[in-house]
Amino acid sequence: MAMADRRRINGPTGATVPPVFLEQTLALTAPRRAPDELRKIFLKTSLTPPATGSAFLELSAPSTLKLTASVYGPRPLPPSAGFSPHARLSAELKFAPFSTAGNRRGYVRDALERDLSTQLQVALARSVKTATYPKSGIDVFVTVLDCEGSIDDYNTLGIMQALAGAITCASAAIADAGIECVDLVSAGIAAAVGEQGSLVMDPSPLDGYDVKAAALVGYMAGRDEITLLWTKGELNIEGGDFESVVDKAVEVATQIRTVLNEAVKERVLAVGGVNS
Amino acid sequence: MAPVANPSAATAPTPLSPAELSYLHSSLSLRPPIRPDSRKPAQFRPLTAELDILPSTHGSSRIVWPDGGECIVGIKAEVEKATPNKDIRSRVEVSVEVAGARDDDPLAVFLASSVGDTLGQKLAGRLEIGERWHWKLYIDILLLTPPVSHPATLLSLAVHLGLRCTNLPRLVSAADEDPLFDDDWDAALPLYPSNAAEVGDVPAVTLLVAAVGENIFFDPTREEMAVADCVLAVSVDWDGKIVGLRTLESGTVSEGGVKRKVIKKVVEQCVPVGKEVFKSLEGIIKAGF
Predict the structure, then answer these.
(1) What percent of chain A has pLDDT over 70?
(2) Range of weakest confidence among A16-20, A24-28, B20-24, B113-117
(3) What's an example GO BP annotation here (chain B) (predicted)?
(4) How many angstroms away from the CA of B194 is the closest CA of chain A?
(5) Is some CB atom of chain A closer than 8 A to the CB atom of B15?
(6) pLDDT(A266) > 80
(7) Could B2 and A242 be called an inter-chain contact, meaning their C-beta atoms sit closer than 8 Å?
(8) Which residue of A87, A186, A233, B214 sits 20 to 30 Å from the alpha carbon of A262, by its own alpha carbon?
(9) Residues of B in contact with A119 (CB under 8 A)
């Protein structure tokens, strides 16, 4: 201790090593789901009082996807819009600034949000009986409060999951608004993963699969019709890869439809209770 | 704050009345169908193509559609230092400008992302220069006239031709050195070698397909899209693989979606039609040199 520097405050003599914690991510601790197992969905309608119809969707842990949809309308179109014999459905999907794990997202709509908004509109437009509401506009707003995984141009699954949640949630909100529809739309995702291209239902970006191709469908189970199809990645036609991925995604959408039915039913029962 | 309900360039309403749309819908659902311009279901409109028209680019092309749609593609390359852990797809940057539309127009956004999706990893893999450097490719697309019909096919064919005639300076340094290039432009190497088509490694093309009832139409006009049950933009590879598929906005004449078997029929027909398209593109490229 004779050598200790007295002009400075010295550290304690018995040196210790700072503790090093092992890196732990949510994805590793979560038990992996079976390839054909879907996550549980929480879907509730009428949670935004000022909107004509609204819904909130959340996926079970470890997924953190949360989104709300609100529907305004049918309301008259502004005079500048011109005459339209059908209702015009517009959809807007927005990521909240705090929704992503990494970088903060800005308030201004970016290219990805515009792209997803258009796809959301395509998925919903043909499920609504637009001819019933001439000269009116139906506006759907979806806000993604929390994403799962990162959202960037190259992470397809994160984007697809957000869009799939948005379609299901927005369809519940449209039904909640009491707008006449031909059927409800639920969305499902399936992916071909690994070298063999084995099929996974409802893959999450947190599962850490090596995704070769993924398909998202917007599906009207009551009519067995597809309103939206979006695939990414190489898929063979002759080998039937394309068909099997789409069929799997439809299967997912069909199962998600049961959740959608229950959520919409709650509201119908509540309204019935008030009237009787 | 309501979202603006004004339709974009792609979804501009047709001047047809509901009765006219219904007439068009039933004539397209006939077996065999009758198209307003008497084309066959899988027949494209004739087009004019030019290669290598811009001397200050590494590769360029121009395609003109008979309805006045005109598209110019210019491709420029830069050398960029490789950053680890960065997705290689970021080596290709696509920008689309539609004349007369704002740069955040949904059409331009859609076109840029669909071109990027179509090219994907395969093109990015070609841009390697040694270990620490790579090419960064800027694909700038200019749609000169406000499109009368949806320009997805036009754009994708123009990008294909532009990429096929792109030449990059020849590397003279070793792979692990800082890159040094041959300054003789005549010695430049093509991005896609002339035999690329024989080995099947050429950029994919996007085909626009509309389904009306059981009938399927390639290269639909705006009026046909307005009455279609569904419009799909299918990107096909040389070897008949689907590399991407998107649903576009279709008309509101009828409600409901499409059956799975119709979609299956669409993608199955895209394979032979895609082969034909690739064959004619090959003809254009052969004639261009």
Answers:
(1) 92
(2) A24-28
(3) TRAMP-dependent tRNA surveillance pathway
(4) 24
(5) no
(6) yes
(7) no
(8) A87
(9) 246-247
Tell if the CB–CB gap between A111 and B109 is shorter than 8 Å: yes
pLDDT at residue A183, rounded to an integer: 94
Domains and CATH numbers, chain B: 21-188+202-288 (3.30.230.70)
List chain B residues with pLDDT less than 50. 1-11
The pLDDT tens digits for A77-127 are: 988 888 888 888 999 999 999 888 777 888 888 888 888 998 999 999 989
- List of domains in chain A: 34-271 (3.30.230.70)
Dist CA B229 CA B214 (whole Å): 10
Across the range A186-206, mean pLDDT stands at 90
Q: How far apart, in whole angstroms, are the C-alpha atoms of residue A266 and residue B4?
A: 33
CA distance B229 to chain A (A): 9
| pLDDT reported for residue A31 | 59
Q: Within a 10 A sphere around the Cβ of B214, how many other Cβ atoms?
A: 13
A223: closest chain B residue by CA: B256
Residue B247 CA to residue B262 CA, distance in Å, equals 13
Q: Is B119 on the interface with A (CB under 8 A)?
A: no
B20: tokens are 């006219």
Residue A85 DSSP code: S
| pLDDT above 90 (res A152) | no
The CA distance from B258 to the nearest CA of chain A, in Å, is 5
The DSSP code for A126 is T
What is the pLDDT confidence band of residue A233, given thresholds at 50, 70 and 90? confident
Whether B90 contacts chain A with CB within 8 A: yes
Torsion of CA B112, B117, B119, B122, to 10 degrees: 150
The interface predicted TM-score of the complex, written ipTM, equals 0.86
Interface contact A126-B256, CB threshold 8 A? yes
CB A256 within 8 A of CB A171: no
- Whether B247 sits inside 8 A of A139 (CB atoms) is no
Q: What average pLDDT does range A158-181 have in this prediction?
A: 94
Q: How many inter-chain contacts (A to B, CB under 8 Å) are there?
A: 134
pLDDT score, position B9: 41
How close does chain A come to B17, measured CA to CA in Å?
Answer: 10
Contact B256 A220 (CB under 8 A): yes
B18 contacts A232? CB cut-off 8 A: no
